[in-house]
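From the shared-data thread, chain only:
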Amino acid sequence: MSKLTCKNVCKSFYIENEEIEVLKNINISISSGELIAISGVSGAGKSTLLHLMASLDKVSSGDILFNDKNISLLKSNEVSELRLNNYGFVYQFHHLLEDLTVLENILIPGEISNSNSNLLQEAYEIIENIGLSHRLKHLPWKLSGGEKQRVAIARALINKPDFIFLDEPTGNLDEQNAKIIQDLLITLSKDHGIALVAATHDNKFIENFETVYKLEDKHLTEI
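Structure, as tokens:
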């Protein structure tokens, strides 16, 4: 079982030499299979916290540990490898490559990793699980918003991550498609032991999570 831990994490940005403190003394520990939701008003720093935990940005102070390894002490190529093999990402905007088919988009992380000889077969299985077998040769512009998000989820799954970070994954979807995406994510998490770490305003989505935190005034509190 993998574990991700934030210890006294702080994050500031500098704008015209003025320090803007966004996160202060964030402490949280997440293990494989857990369902963690982070709520808070727009601009509270939810996306910033996700980016830090996912090693897409660096802390200003404090430590983030993956299985007791301090990510700040790793070399850039080691961080990239950690991110590629252990993390998946699903955001409000799907970020699919428009010139690639559904199948080709899903395969991208696996092809970069180049560590799975059964990659194509597993991609077919994932596509079937998300209900898009009939779309695998389609380009993204032919897909609905909900279908594009399902492709983004499949892409996040292809390297069998321990953690999937979700930044408002249902924010652009209607209620029906949002429910489909929510149910799919929860099912996949339970079936594969993947931790979901979601920043969301969606109260119906939050109801599915075991642990809910609120990010307010730079601090994270369990509610």
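The first helix runs from residue 46 to 53.
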